Amino acid sequence: MKTIENNIYDIASDFAIRIVNLYKYLTDEKHEYVMSKQILRSGTSIGANSFEGKNAQSRADFCNKMSIALKEAGETGFWLDLIHKSKYIDDSQFESLYADWNRIYAVLIKIVKTTKNIKE
C-alpha cells in the first residue's frame, strides 16, 4: 500500500500534466499568456516540491518541501479560479481541474499538519 507521501507525488504529477495541457490550450487556443504562465509555474511546482520531499534529508526538510508544495497549491487555486472567472475555461473544465486541485490541497494540508505534530 502506498504511503500518503508517495501518493501526493503521484497525484501532483498527474495534476502537473493537466496543468501543462491547460497551458497549451490557453496559449494556443485562447492566446492568453500571462495567467497561463503563472498557473504553469505554480501548478507544476507542486509536483516538483513533492518529489524533492520524497528525498528529504530530515523530517524538517520534508515538512519544508511539503509546506512549499502547499503554498504553490494555494497559488494554483487562485489562478485556476481567476482563469475560470475570466471565462478562459468553461464550467466543466474548471470543475474537473478544481476537483483534482482540491484533492491535492487536502492531502498536502494533512501531510503538513501531521508532519508538524510528529516530534523528531
From TrEMBL:
Q: Which Pfam families match?
A: 23S_rRNA_IVP
> Which InterPro entries does the protein's record reference?
23S_rRNA-intervening_sequence, 23S_rRNA_IVS_sf
Q: Which NCBIfam families does the UniProt entry name for this protein?
A: four helix bundle protein
Q: In its UniProt entry, what is this protein called? A: Four helix bundle protein
Q: Which organism is it from?
A: Prevotella communis
